[in-house]
Amino acid sequence: MSGKLNNTSVCASGTTSWSVNAALKTGRNTIKVQSVDNLGLRSSFVTVTRRGGADEENDR
Q1: Which of 11, 31, 53, 60 shows a CA-CA span of 20 to 30 A to 5?
Q2: Full residue range of the structural domain in which residue 18 is found
Q3: Assessment of whether the complete model's pTM goes beyond 0.85
């Protein structure tokens, strides 16, 4: 899964993308994503807030 967030490229794979997809499908507007660097030495948590349009109410 990849996309743009505030002009920053976001790429997620494996369980991270599954978690994001599951959160979006359940209508959660705030998603906490953990990212690990290529070496797996450092991890960071990123909170993503989804801002929707007219469909946002229907997703809840």
Answers
A1: 60
A2: 2-51
A3: no
